[in-house]
Amino acid sequence: MNAEIIPNKNLVVKTLQKKSAGLFPVFDKKTFDYLKEQSLKYFLLYQKAFPEQFKKSERIASCSQCLTYEVYKHTVEQDTYKTSMWTYTCKDPFCPFCQRNKSRRLFTEMYHTLSYLEDLAGRQYSYYFLTLTVKNPPISELRDTLKHMSKAFQMMFIRSDSKVFKPIRRVVKGYYRTLEYLGSNTPPGEAHPHYHILLVMPKYYKPSRKEYISSPEWSSMWKHALKVDYDPIIDIQRVRPSRKKGATHSAMVSAIAEVTKYSVKPSSVFSLSLNDFRHLIIQTKGVQTFSRSKYFRQLKDLLKTTPEQEEEESKLWVLVMSEYYRYSSGGYLLTKSEYNQFPNSSPSVPSG
User: Fold this and answer.
1) 336 belongs to a structural domain
2) Degrees (nearest 5) of the Cα angle 52, 57, 58?
3) Does residue 305 form part of some domain?
């Protein structure tokens, strides 16, 4: 499925970002205080496991020490939007703070893309959440297992012309895939690599249709792609709207939230032995944990704003103020606010 050339990309990016920010807040003091505490805990673990890598440890300790935000106001609708402008991050794949930042970027990208797709197609899609697993390998051999899983996935969804996988290509319009390394009860010395995949299907895709792929059929195809002699465990569920903290989220938002979870939850890392933690870091170095189908790559590129659009957008949103936060023993504290006045407006700070 190829993305069509979009004749009119009249998207106001900050407006879309404002909507997604309401679902995944840009700044939440309670959450950020907790994440920074976890990052410092991760720093101590990394320093203990790799004492020779003191520069890397220092980068982790300094991660997100200072945060800078800008608040914009819409010149017509008068609503406000807060965006992160600058912060130093260590970019370690297991740093809790950096994992959260990555999750938010992916959430924003997927929200923009799927929102546009639903508007373009008149909401003619449904969402399914597929989990593909393999037998737990020794954590010291995790990299080889990940390579094997990647080849099997490409055979199943991308490269192979085998009749075995034709049912998938007949109904899957696109996908987002994330990789996790550990489960909630992974035995010591082992890893539990598995894929979480958000499948975009036609609205008519239901158990009553002949195109429907049952759980045993998914398992059989995954087994064929892996070329193993056991039946791998899979799970396939339709994503439905959910209620969280009193708010109802659409099936699309629920699906995005599930697929953008962390590749390894902080609690899982801290429960590892020092030796297993070393293996995890070494075995996963450079591994890509997120991928998207060709169709969504094309849509992502097509939805990029042009210089003309950015100029037009700059007329709609005006900078109101800048905020500077710094982490200390009491958590993140607002150290400075700078207001920018402009005609016929009064600066206001958005809530949340």
Assistant:
1) yes
2) 120
3) no
Q: How many domains does the chain have?
A: 2
Q: Could you tell me if residue 202 is inside a domain? A: yes
Q: Please state the three-class secondary structure of the chain as a single string.
A: CCCCCCCCCCCCHHHHHHHHHHHCCCCCHHHHHHHHHHHHHHHHHHHHHCCCCHHHHHHHHHCCCEEEEEEEEECCCCCEEEEEEEECCCCCCCCHHHHHHHHHHHHHHHHHHHHHHHHHHCCCEEEEEEEEECCCCEHHHHHHHHHHHHHHHHHHHHHCCCHHHHHHHHHCCEEEEEEECCCCCCCCCECCCEEEEEEEEECCCCCCCCCCCCHHHHHHHHHHHHCCCCCCCEEEEECCCEEECCEEECHHHHHHHHHCCCCCCHHHHHCCCHHHHHHHHHHCCCCCCEEECHHHHHHHHHCCCCHHHHHHHHCCEEEEEEEEEEEECCEEEEEEEEECCCCCCCCCCCCC
Of 84, 101, 104, which is closest to residue 92 (Cα–Cα)? 101
Q: Report d(CA 239, CA 207) in Å as an integer.
A: 14
pLDDT means over runs of 10, the chain (352 residues): 35 45 68 93 96 95 92 79 84 92 85 80 80 97 97 88 87 92 91 94 88 94 95 91 60 76 75 96 94 85 74 78 90 87 44 38
Same domain, 150 and 280: yes
Asked, for residue 44, whether it belongs to a domain, the answer is yes
Closest by CA position to 172, among listed 294, 6, 42, 13: 294
